[in-house]
């Protein structure tokens, strides 16, 4: 990747999961690098800067042991050629990391009561409302003693790091775990320049009215401590400004997407996150992916058969169940497709400790069994459901699928759609929910899905599977071009340019 733009100020990052985690095996302490586009983009930036620190949670026991050894301070982790903690000068790229340890009960209330599920459910519109949520004294207490307390601990760590740098720094906060942090940091360090980026959808004011009035007010006021609140799309940014207007009564400008808070102007901006196209190309070129491709071709693509793919966490927001219902309807209404189309679903089990998620997995299994029983032909079942964590397998499937289905009820962006656009080599068609953030950029090249309408989705899948080859390749090339020219580096650079402008450097 090319060089990062100069920042002129130290950088303090905050996210729940950090760039490295620690473990222990027979040989002693091991250091693992975090996976995914976000962590690698931010790691690239942090490695490049002279003065940057990444504040994150101590996830496991070994993380806590490392934090204890550093007496609450930061450590320097060299990230290549092999990751390890360094005492003196590193002789390769390195990231300064500060691991925050919190009380386990408070953390459980923060993470497993408020962040996921309550905030996740509100922001993805997952509550049925007639019977859920039920907010009792326990949830009020969990907010105070969990969400707020943990936010406070992380905010204190950020403040500590900013003060150690003279009180002036660029601060980048990530996601729905930390809505209270910006305001606290600004109170202690008024000279920071701060962006809070929200990776999930931001719904309109009425969804937020599900929450107790004082809590939703605190969450909004917390975020308004930022200079910029970043989202994936204009729609989410606008919803945020509407919330400030309707729920807090603050003066706003809905065209410029600004909120006036006392003598400060807070901007809601949209920076669509993306993928690291070069890293994806490298993964695709690996022997492991080639072996998977050969196997998938052998299983799914002999004769003139086609492959429909989905790759998701087993999260109710991804709408896996309605996706299978639509596929079942497609086969009912187009029996000529039975035996001609396979549906490969690579699902990563997620948050299985949350009852709604465990129930959802059971529902998926039962539905797949039922559709497979109904449409097995010559011993071949139409759906191949695999509960796996296997990124090279996912990239192999991306490369050769005919149709990718993303039918989320709500999805901040959805990186899977962008990954397929970059690596597919078979004229793969994106069947993309209008409720995924990615639809704002890729909708014109996709077949649009309306995630609650089973018949519409079945019809759209039929359109995708029967689209002329030339049209398929034309759309795929245009989608790939859009993603390659708007990759994850651009997502980050655009935010940094805005921060430098606010700080007065440009
Ligand atoms: C949240 C928001 C937003 C796939 N299989 C495996 C695996 N993957 C990778 C995919 C992709 C990532 O996981 C999933 O990203 P998504 O964007 O699709 O969805 P969320 O996990 O819900 O992410 C979302 C995103 O944050 C970024 O802001 O786009 O809207 O919900 O990169 O390729 N990764 C591993 N093993 C697999 O088997 N490790």
What does this structure look like?
It is a single chain. The chain is built from 18 helices and 19 strands. 46% of the residues lie in helices and 19% in strands. With 506 residues, the chain is α/β, with parallel strands linked by helices. Helix 5 links the parallel strand 8 (170-174) and strand 9 (193-197). GDP-alpha-D-glucose is lined by residues 35-38, 199-200, 273, 311, 313, 348, 388-391, 394, 411-416, 419.
Average of per-residue pLDDT values: 95
**Which structural class fits the helix and strand makeup?**
alpha/beta
Number of strands: 19
Distance between the termini: 23 Å
**Unreliable segments (pLDDT under 50, ≥5 consecutive)?**
none
What order do the strands of the largest sheet run in, or round the barrel if closed?
6-5-7-4-1-8-9-10-13-12-11
Radius of gyration: 23 Å
The largest sheet is:
11 strands, mixed
Q: Determine the strand fraction and express it as a percent band.
A: 15-25%
Instruction: Report the bound ligands by name, code or SMILES.
Output: GDP-alpha-D-glucose
Helicity, in percent? 40-55%
Helices, by number, come to 18
The geometry reads as globular
Descriptive key words:
globular; 46% helix; alpha/beta; binds GDP-alpha-D-glucose; single chain; 18 helices
In short:
This protein has helices at 37-48, 61-69, 104-124, 137-164, 181-188, 205-208, 213-223, 234-248, 277-284, 287-300, 320-333, 355-375, 391-400, 415-423, 439-442, 454-465, 469-485, 488-502, and strands spanning 11-14, 20-25, 28-33, 52-57, 75-78, 84-86, 94-100, 170-174, 193-197, 228-231, 252-253, 258-261, 264-270, 306-313, 341-348, 383-387, 403-406, 429-433, 447-449. By secondary structure, the protein is an alpha/beta fold. The chain is globular.
């Amino acid at each position: 990747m090319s060089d990062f733009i100069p920042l002129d100020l130290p950088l303090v990052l905050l996210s729940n999961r950090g760039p490295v985690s620690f473990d222990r095996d027979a040989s002693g302490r091991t250091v693992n690098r975090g996976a995914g586009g976000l962590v690698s983009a931010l790691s690239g930036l942090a490695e490049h800067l002279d003065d940057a620190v990444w504040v994150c949670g101590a996830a496991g026991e070994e993380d806590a042991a490392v934090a204890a050894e550093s007496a609450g301070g930061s450590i320097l982790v060299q990230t290549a050629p092999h990751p390890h903690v360094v005492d003196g000068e590193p002789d390769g790229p390195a990231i300064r990391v500060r691991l925050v340890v919190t009380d386990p009960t408070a953390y459980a209330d923060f993470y497993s009561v408020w962040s996921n599920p309550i905030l996740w459910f509100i922001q993805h519109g997952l509550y049925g409302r007639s019977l859920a949520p039920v907010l009792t004294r326990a949830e009020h207490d969990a907010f105070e003693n969990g969400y707020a307390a943990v936010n406070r601990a992380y905010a204190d760590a950020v403040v500590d790091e900013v003060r150690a740098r003279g009180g002036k720094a660029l601060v980048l906060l990530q996601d729905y775990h930390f809505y209270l942090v910006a305001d606290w940091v600004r109170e202690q360090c008024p000279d920071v320049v701060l962006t809070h980026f929200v990776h999930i959808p931001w719904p309109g004011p009425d969804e937020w009215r599900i929450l107790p009035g004082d809590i939703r007010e605190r969450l909004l006021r917390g975020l308004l401590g930022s200079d910029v609140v970043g989202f994936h799309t204009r729609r989410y940014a606008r919803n945020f400004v509407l919330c400030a207007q309707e729920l807090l009564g603050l003066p706003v400008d809905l065209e410029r997407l600004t909120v006036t808070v006392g003598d400060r102007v807070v901007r809601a901006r949209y920076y669509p996150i993306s993928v690291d196209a070069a890293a994806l190309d490298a993964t695709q070129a690996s022997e492991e992916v080639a072996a998977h491709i050969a196997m998938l071709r052998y299983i799914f693509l002999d004769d003139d058969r086609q492959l429909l793919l989905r790759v998701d966490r087993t999260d109710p927001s991804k709408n896996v169940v309605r996706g299978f219902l639509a596929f079942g309807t497609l086969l009912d209404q187009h029996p000529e497709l039975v035996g001609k189309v396979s549906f490969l679903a690579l699902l990563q089990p997620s948050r299985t400790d949350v009852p709604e998620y465990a129930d959802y997995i059971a529902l998926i299994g039962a539905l797949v069994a039922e559709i497979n029983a109904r449409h097995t032909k010559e011993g071949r079942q139409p759906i191949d459901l695999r509960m796996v964590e296997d990124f090279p397998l996912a990239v192999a499937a991306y490369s050769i699928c005919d149709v990718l289905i993303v039918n989320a009820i709500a999805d901040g962006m959805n990186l899977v759609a962008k990954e397929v656009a970059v690596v597919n080599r078979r004229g793969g068609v994106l069947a993309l929910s209008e409720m995924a953030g990615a639809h704002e950029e890729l909708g014109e090249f996709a077949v649009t899905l309306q995630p609650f309408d089973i018949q519409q989705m079945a019809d759209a899948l039929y359109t995708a599977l029967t689209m002329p080859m030339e049209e398929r390749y034309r759309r795929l090339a245009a989608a790939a071009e859009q993603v390659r020219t708007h990759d994850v580096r651009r997502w980050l650079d655009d935010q940094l340019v805005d921060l430098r402008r606010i700080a007065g450097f440009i």
